[in-house]
Structure formats: C-alpha cells, structure tokens
Amino acid sequence: MARHTTMDQVLRGPRESPTRAARDLGDCVYAVRTPDKLVKIGFTSNLDRRIRGFGAVWADVLLALPGSYADEKALHDRCAPYLARGREYYFPALELMAWINDERLRLGAGPVK
Predict the structure, then answer these.
(1) For 14-56, how does the pLDDT look when each residue is reduced to its tens digit (9 = 90+)?
(2) What's the sign of the alpha-carbon dihedral 54, 10, 83, 112?
(3) Number of domains in the chain
(4) Cβ neighbours, 10 Å, residue 18
(5) Does residue 93 form part of some domain?
(6) Residue-range definition of the domain harbouring residue 50
(7) DSSP states of the chain as a string?
(8) For the whole prediction, is pTM greater than 0.85?
C-alpha cells in the first residue's frame, strides 16, 4: 500500500480513516488549532496519538508535514514573532496562516481560515 503524504489524504482520505493515514505519515511536524484559537506547532512520530493526547480532534489539524525535531525548531524560530505562550503556541497571525495555507495548497488540500 502506498504511503499517505498529502494533507487531503491525512485529513480526509476517502477510503481510509485519518488515523490510518496519520500512522502512515510517520515522523511529522504539525500545526493544530487549539480550543482558545491559538496555533500549536509541534513534532511527533504518532500524529493520531498526539492529537488525542491534548484533546484536539481531526478537524483542528491545520497542517501535517513529514519532518524532524530540527524542522520543528526551524518552524518555532520562524514563528517566534507570533508566540502567544510557552514555546509551541502561536497567535494565528496573517503571515503564519498564509504559510499554512500555502503548504496545504501545495499538498493538495484546501485553505483554512
């Protein structure tokens, strides 16, 4: 079976659950909208478990890209001007959301607001 690598497959695969597609993604960097409307950026080797671990649902996932801890650190550095709290929670600034939407479009998924 082919590995799933696009946002559309991870979030809305027509024949497989998001859980299965996320498992196939492996190590990844993700962006998730939190209940307080911030954007959490992190790294995980199990996206499904990570999402459930902090109480999010699949509809909250904005982006998931194959990546490493180094990629996560680079994203944190890039997003530093939008830091809201801690080291992984950011305000949904226009520039941050534009980048997320550019990546989503590049990977075959529609934009988010």
Answers:
(1) 344 555 566 677 899 999 999 899 999 999 998 888 888 877 7
(2) negative
(3) 1
(4) 21
(5) yes
(6) 7-106
(7) -PPP-SHHHHHH-SSS-HHHHHHHH-SEEEEEE-TTS-EEEEEES-HHHHHHHTT--GGGEEEEEE--HHHHHHHHHHHGGGEEETTTEE---HHHHHHHHHHHHHTT-----
(8) no
